[in-house]
Amino acid sequence: MLIILQMKMILLEFRMISEDKIKFLMPTYLKPLSLIFFFLMTIDAIAQKIEKNNNEFDGPYLIYQGDSILVKSVDYKSVNAPVQVRSYAQKNKGNIKIEVKFSDFPDKNFQVDLRKNITNEPSVWKQPEKMFVISDIEGEFDAFRNLLLANKIINEKYEWTFGKGHVVVCGDLFDRGKEVPATLWLLYKLEDAAKTKGGYVHTILGNHDIMNLAGNLKYLDKKYLKSAELMNVSYNNLYDENTELGRWLRSKNLIEKIGDNLCLHGGLSPEVNDLKLSVPELNRLSKPYIGWKDLKNTVTDKKILDIFSSTIGLFWYRGYFKEPPLEESVVVQTLKMYQVKRIIVGHTILKNNISFYYNGKVLAVDVNQHEGDHQAVLYENKQWYKLDLTGSKNQLK
């Protein structure tokens, strides 16, 4: 698998070049090399096929019903009984282990210990010595797992190997990818694993997370709707307040201040700056409305509408990168207001990402995980590095 990953990194830039174009560009005496090139492209296609997710399991989904906990999962290999349901007493929740399974690669299977209680996450933190930052995973479990493995955040047994380091996910866990539940459960598991070693995992919500919780399924892979149908439940009920993952997601923040860094999904618009709300206040106001349907027609509070706005809100704003770009003076205003040195965001894929913008004041970390661009960021020894699946570190200037 490591060879395949390294091969993929080498060939990524060539996938968009056609055979006709190669032959046209090459001098006659070099055209035999085109055979070598397309041999490599064939290998690349095979590598992609091998790497492609063929997991026949979906879930598990944990639903509260009366005094019971129902753990539902789907096994698409089973024709006669594709839905598996296990029932537990809620009073025994702290002793329940659930299993996340992969039919295509059982070595990826892992167990999760359920927590007795879920509490809201703090939103202001001291600067950790090490930070691993990623965004927009969107159900690409293998990419996320491989990045964690390659950069020694976890080992093959999903044990935490990052010491007192912090992992920061700047939003977007849902949509497009084939392994959303597995990704959520891995983060749930790693949060506890990190704490035992003095580390921490920060899961910050993005627009796709808010959309799913509010029933906006525009970008949802049809696999999940099929699973919900088989389980005889509405997809929206798989992540509502009567589910474990729904409660866990509603405990998360839309923005966090981690040392010198303001971490969120989209960005801070001038309009949100004008609200003059602290990081804890932004989260305190927003949390009751996570999962709220038709917000703009049911809420009149301007602060809430601005925070959740699809153009100027915390998890939608793209003003740092649109034309004309936001004036740097506004970015400076944000940094001064929150007493930080930089803003770290996902949400917007740019040609140069992962990169600094505004003279180092904004760090954009979104890359297209679905197209094989698997990267993250590391802060270590007061330096910033770009990471990939090879485990190498390239310093960001």
UniProtKB/TrEMBL annotation:
Pfam families: Metallophos. Residues 132-348 form the Calcineurin-like phosphoesterase domain. SUPFAM superfamilies: Metallo-dependent phosphatases (SSF56300). PANTHER family: SHEWANELLA-LIKE PROTEIN PHOSPHATASE 1. This is Metallophosphoesterase. The lineage of its organism: Bacteria, Pseudomonadati, Bacteroidota, Sphingobacteriia, Sphingobacteriales.
